[in-house]
Q: What sequence folds into this?
């Protein structure tokens, strides 16, 4: 794993805010992903529609939040760092906007409760302090909480030539080790 040092928070925020206004045309959480668990959980229970789910980096369209709501998960929430995303939620998502908050995961959980599941699709590589962020994710999960995460693999050279990426995993083994070193067990 390689991590670029953040030189300036304003630059970091401006890049992430610009990305937050972008919509996703696909719902990546329901494609290929890694599933990690915090502790011993019966995997049949993750289909419980009373689960509290948080999608970190949900962007303007909040597709994952919308899709989980459409599938009957009534306690699905989203957060994104960008004010551009927040403006879109207010203008386009009706009552679902009440399930979304502007916030930077580096600053902690913007909600007043814990979650049974956290999803992050192409978010981890944009975090300037991944270890701190994963510690926060660990703490915002219930005891039996799980994480779905999707990331790209890239070399150190690709990382340094790709802005606004701050974190790079060259392969699956590096990615798994990172999570295991931070008190998670990889399931798939």
A:
């Amino acid at each position: 794993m390689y991590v670029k040092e953040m030189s300036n928070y304003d630059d970091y925020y401006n890049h992430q805010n610009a990305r937050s206004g972008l919509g996703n045309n696909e719902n990546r959480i329901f494609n290929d992903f890694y599933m990690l668990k915090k502790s011993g959980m019966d995997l049949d229970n993750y289909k419980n529609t009373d689960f509290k789910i948080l999608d970190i980096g949900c962007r303007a369209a909040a597709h994952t939040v919308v899709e989980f709501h459409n599938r009957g998960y009534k306690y699905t929430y989203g957060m994104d760092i960008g004010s551009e995303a927040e403006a879109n939620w207010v203008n386009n998502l009706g009552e679902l906007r009440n399930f979304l908050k502007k916030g930077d995961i580096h600053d902690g959980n913007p909600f007043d409760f814990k979650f049974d599941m956290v999803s992050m699709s192409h978010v981890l590589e944009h975090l300037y302090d991944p270890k701190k962020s994963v510690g926060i994710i660990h703490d915002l999960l219930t005891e039996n909480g799980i994480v779905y995460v999707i990331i790209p693999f890239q070399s150190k050279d690709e990382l340094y030539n790709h802005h606004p990426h701050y974190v790079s995993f060259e392969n699956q083994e590096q990615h798994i080790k990172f999570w295991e070193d931070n008190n998670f067990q990889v399931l798939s």
Notes: The mean pLDDT is 80. Residues 9-20 form the longest helix (12 residues). The longest strand covers residues 141-150. The beta strands are 2-3, 34-37, 52-56, 75-80, 100-102, 115-121, 141-150, 167-168, 185-186.
